[in-house]
Automatic annotation (TrEMBL), chain A:
Membrane-spanning segments: 12-35, 73-94, 106-123, 154-178, 212-232, 263-284
Keyword Transmembrane helix: yes
Domain ABC transmembrane type-1: 69-280
Coiled coil (UniProt feature): none
Entry membrane topology: Multi-pass membrane protein
Protein name as it appears in the record: Sugar ABC transporter permease
Pfam family, one: BPD_transp_1
Species of origin: Bradyrhizobium agreste
Main location: membrane
Keyword set includes Transport: yes
Subcellular location: Cell membrane
Keyword line: Cell membrane, Membrane, Transmembrane, Transmembrane helix, Transport
The family this protein is said to belong to: Belongs to the binding-protein-dependent transport system permease family.
Automatic annotation (TrEMBL), chain B:
Purpose: Involved in beta-(1-->2)glucan export. Transmembrane domains (TMD) form a pore in the inner membrane and the ATP-binding domain (NBD) is responsible for energy generation.
Gene3D superfamilies associated with the record: 2.40.50.100, Nucleic acid-binding proteins, P-loop containing nucleotide triphosphate hydrolases
InterPro entries recorded: AAA+_ATPase, ABC_transporter-like_ATP-bd, ABC_transporter-like_CS, ABC_transpr_MalK-like, ABC_transpr_MalK/UgpC-like, Mo/tungstate-bd_C_term_dom, NA-bd_OB-fold, P-loop_NTPase
Protein name: ABC transporter ATP-binding protein
Keywords assigned: ATP-binding, Nucleotide-binding, Transport
Domain ABC transporter: 4-234
Length: 290, 335
């Protein structure tokens, strides 16, 4: 790609794809910005009028906004922590040579292929149901009162479901990283007198720093937009206890039919995602260098 | 102290016997090189001594104590790996001091020892760098530093110089030898390079197919090889082997003559007649590859320049005092 001709050729061949992608991104963004400045209610079509930044003021001062922002951060943080804390030991176990290892790996990966809607339904009706769920049955087996997950601890219930879905992803990434750890390094540590625990702390864990970063960054992108699990199980409730930003925007647009306010919320969500990304890249991103 | 004795050490992976009973006595402070072709079991034997593999049979004694059930760290040995196996996220200081840290030494003592080791190896300016910021030779020295700082009973080297370029290899070869003599610590060094073996070793162990073919000083192996394998493996270029009539005259199945022990004369001399196929002129030496008809290809070496060229007829006369005789099974015949 050194000569002027090849550079020109490369650019002209890339242009259609880049241009299409650009339009693909810019049209919804511009429309959202446009809608966010309108009074635009679906209950009252034809009455659209320009209101400036009024929608933003309305969305940001809504008490539901702060509650849902908090829920979003708790949800993302908890799921990240759980998937990594559980993913590391799981990956270490799956790295051991055991009989039927391939089958075990397949089973561990399985939750990742279940649609969020389906897994939420399974958890809601088969596992966490206070009367007919498996957990209720287990609790009654020990003479305990079954937990009514979606009423008593709704956010925890959602966190558990989402963790279950994302644990395979974290495990897989960490497992492949473990397999790339140089065998001679472990042997050198063994010769240096490191115990299994010390080898893990001083050799394995630093080696996992980069894949952990990858897991955090990728999961954050998807966890900020968790929707189906909440919609299917709690519907954002009780009250606002499981409403996150994504669900709040949905409820503005399609429960309160206020498109203008929902568009403003969408733009706020973009800003929040960028703030999170900024801090993430500063905190963990340096692991990706060199 | 670092006297290592192997008694009937065996190792098999499933049905495959890698080491078929090795007996060896390594004196304290000596530099012993394991040399042999790929797959001869030399690295496996080293790993058995290190404790990274379990023996299938036999005993390994370090200072008279059987260590076959002792974990690697407790054997008091340290190892330099072929890939160096440096810890990539630790500085040079952290790498060298890791073993001491694991042994629970106080911080200032670790620092003192690490700095002393770094000074010996000229690594002081690099102590706070990461391995990836170092050149190949420097990484090599860090790996050696990690080995010496623990003051082990013996060093184990697993082909440590094979990743370096030729010039650096010669330099590191000298450095390692000098360091070992200076510290007086027993060293076991694995290589497939017989030049490394000849130049570094006090004693060489020649391995082939999981068996020790010969154990002796470099010159012993050169002058009195125990069998055809050792004769062919030690020395460069390889020894010439001649069978048939000339061998029978000497009362042997095969006779071997080193290239440097063939007297080269222009056509008409009294020795083996042949035509030069290739002549290599190095200035310091001249190597002649001679097609000697029924005797096969013979290699002859002349110290200095000899103006003979491909196609010239020559006659080669072996030095009668330096002919090696072997019986049918390949073992050396001593007169």
């Amino acid at each position: 790609m050194a000569t002027r001709q090849t550079q020109f050729l490369a650019r002209s061949l890339l242009t259609p794809a880049v241009g299409l992608l650009f339009i693909w991104m810019i049209v919804p963004l511009v429309l959202t910005i446009y809608f966010s400045t309108l009074h635009y209610s679906l209950l009252d079509p034809g009455s659209e009028s320009f209101v400036g930044l009024e929608n933003f003021r309305y969305f940001l001062t809504d008490p539901a906004f702060l509650a849902s922002l908090q829920n979003t951060l708790v949800l993302v943080g908890s799921v990240l922590a759980l998937t990594i804390l559980l993913g590391i030991p799981l990956a270490l176990l799956m790295d051991q040579p055991v009989i039927g290892r391939n089958f075990v790996r397949l089973m561990v990966i399985a939750p990742f292929f279940v649609m969020p809607t389906v897994s939420a339904l399974v958890w809601k009706n088969l596992l966490m149901h206070p009367v007919s769920g498996l957990f209720a049955w287990l609790a009654s087996l020990f003479g305990l009162t079954p937990i009514d997950w979606f009423n008593d601890v709704p956010l925890l219930a959602v966190i558990l479901i989402v963790t279950w879905q994302w644990l395979p992803f974290a495990t897989l990434i960490l497992l492949t990283a473990l397999q790339s750890l140089d065998e001679e390094q472990k042997e050198a540590a063994e010769m240096d007198g490191a115990s299994a625990v010390s080898t893990f702390i001083y050799i394995t864990l630093p080696h996992l720093a980069r894949p952990i970063t990858v897991v955090i960054l990728i999961e954050t992108i998807f966890l900020l937009t968790v929707f189906a699990e909440i919609f299917v199980t709690t519907g954002g409730g009780p009250g606002l206890q499981t409403t996150n930003i994504a669900f709040l925007i949905y409820s503005q647009a399609l429960i309160q039919f206020d498109v203008g306010s929902a568009s403003a919320g969408g733009l706020v969500a973009v800003v929040i995602a960028n703030i999170v990304a900024f801090f993430l890249v500063r905190i963990v991103g340096r692991n990706l260098e060199a | 102290m670092g006297q290592i004795t192997l008694q009937g050490v065996q190792k098999s992976f499933g049905p495959v016997h890698i080491i078929k009973g090795a007996d060896l006595d390594i004196a304290d402070g000596s530099f012993v090189v394991f040399v042999g072709p790929s797959g001869c079991g030399k690295t496996t034997l080293l790993r058995l001594i290190a404790g990274l593999e379990d023996v299938s049979g036999g005993k390994i004694l370090i200072d008279g104590k059987n260590v076959v059930d002792t974990p690697p760290a407790k054997r008091g040995l340290s190892m330099v790996f072929q890939s160096y196996a440096l810890y990539p996220h630790m500085s040079v200081r952290g790498n060298i001091g890791f073993g001491l840290k694991m042994a629970g030494l106080p911080k200032d003592e670790i620092n003192r020892k690490v700095e002393a080791a770094a000074a010996t190896l000229n690594l002081t300016p690099y102590l706070d760098r990461k391995p990836r910021e170092l050149s190949g030779g420097q990484r090599q020295r860090v790996a050696i530093g990690r080995a010496i700082v623990r003051e082990p009973k013996a060093f184990l080297f697993d082909e440590p110089l094979s990743n370096l370029d030729a010039a650096l290899r010669v330099q590191m070869r000298i450095e390692v030898t000098r360091l070992q003599k200076q510290l007086g610590t027993t060293a076991i060094y694995v290589t497939h390079d017989q030049v490394e073996a000849m130049t570094m070793a006090d004693k060489i162990v020649v391995l082939n197919g999981g068996k020790i073919e010969q154990y002796g000083s470099p010159l012993e192996l050169y002058e009195r090889p125990a069998n055809l394998f050792v004769a062919g493996f030690i020395g460069s270029p390889k020894m010439n082997f001649v069978t048939g009539e000339p061998a029978l005259q000497k009362g042997a199945a095969t006779i071997g003559v080193r290239p440097e022990h063939l007297k080269i004369e222009r056509d008409g001399g009294g020795g083996w007649q042949g035509t030069i196929a290739v002549a290599e002129h190095l200035g310091s030496d001249t190597f002649l590859y001679v097609d000697a008809g029924a005797l096969g290809m013979l290699t002859a070496r002349y110290i200095g320049e000899l103006s003979l060229h491909a196609g010239d007829r020559v006659s080669l006369t072996p030095d009668p005092a330096r002919i090696h005789r072997f019986d049918e099974s390949g073992n050396a015949l001593r007169s």
